Amino acid sequence: MTAPEALTDPESLRERALAALTTARERTALLTSCVEDPDLTAQHSPLMSPLVWDLAHIGNQEELWLLRAVAGRDAIRPEIDGLYDAFEHPRAERPSLPLLPPAEARKYAAEVRGRALDVLEGTAFRGSRLTEAGFAFGMIAQHEQQHDETMLITHQLRKGPAALTAPAPEAPPPFTGPSEVLVPGGPFTMGTSAEPWSLDNERPAHQRLVPAFWIDTTPVTNGAYTAFVEDGGYEDERWWTPAGWDHIRSHSIEAPLYWRREGGQWLRRRFGVTEPVPADEPVLHVCWYEADAYARWAGRRLPTEEEWEKAARHDPVSGRSTRYPWGDADPGPEHANLGQRHLRPAPAGSYPAGASLLGVRQLIGDVWEWTASDFLPYPGFTAFPYKEYSQVFFGPDHKVLRGGSFAVDQVACRGTFRNWDYPIRRQIFSGFRTARDGAA
Fold this sequence. Notes:
By secondary structure, the chain is an alpha+beta fold. The protein has two domains: 4-157, Up-down Bundle (Four Helix Bundle (Hemerythrin (Met), subunit A)), CATH 1.20.120; 173-440, paralog of FGE (formylglycine-generating enzyme) (Alpha-Beta Complex). The chain is built from nine helices and twelve strands. The chain has helices at 10-33, 37-41, 51-70, 102-122, 135-157, 222-230, 242-250, 288-297, 305-313; strands at residues 180-183, 186-190, 206-210, 213-216, 259-262, 265-270, 273-276, 368-375, 395-402, 419-421, 430-431, 435-437. A four-stranded mixed sheet has the order 10-9-8-11. Strands 1-4-12 form a three-stranded antiparallel sheet, with helices on one face. The longest helix has 24 residues, at 10-33. The chain is globular, with a radius of gyration of 21 Å.
């Protein structure tokens, strides 16, 4: 089942929700079972929660929305709600809280899941916005996968030997296509009103008029970014915004996070392994300021959010907007690097079957891509089911990222999906591509 309008059959919806919840829980189990309990309870960075907090938080959110909100059941552990409220306690403070220990957190999450599956079995996918088309179940699957990505970030920050392994992406044939693609000017439909599990900030669908522009065919690679580094890009104030220049100087930033130079060679640390920086992979772990500075150095700019989405979804023949760059079919392994199948981006030019209908590659998966845009609501935005998911983050403090990364599951990744973060963030799986104005 692929097109959103086809997602109306209750049994098919039930199967889809069960598969999404099961996939998420299997991944959560992997991320929390590959290390010993001391690693679960430790805070590996003040930027991140202890892994055991994420585990119990996943269960608590599932209880709040599927057991209490959808099924109207009594709370299992009401006394822990405050401990796992992401807005009540900043990440740096969470290790000092009386958190559930690992065994108890696992037991709690498992108990919630067992009851949630009973609710799923008996829910009619109609009658309220929460249950329509299984939205609440899709929301919870996406929430768990988003925390799985967060936990994978924590694993990358964690010191010590590798705890996770995965095969490398298959090397594609050498990419010989054009370095950039012209996206024609004109209107296109941005956002969605039809995707049943889309989140509030993706809604509603609306028209945007976008002038013609050129966009990189692939994300910027490590090799290209190294040229910026070695040309003195981090020492030249010309390429940086004032805030960006202050940030990199005050934090002595000289290269992407996890890079170091040794014996004339750039090395990186990746999930406990130190290796040469692969020139053909998309650059990873750069903040918005770094992406913006590189674009200026290259004589280009970051694409706006609407430009990125038009490059990803616009069908130049029909004029309509597709669900994904390649069309309306759900992602397969031939389309994109998703779901922690690999623990790294695939080389630039990979996944020709996943190219957009305009010929732009790797818009989904591999690396989150910074855009030039602030995170703002669409015209007609309505917060649902709670304002803390999106509304409290709107404004100039957060920049939009698009496309997902190798750490994103397909349930939390589509052509309309919006991510956002502070422009200083580098621990996330972030990269970028550049753009320039085009012909009229």
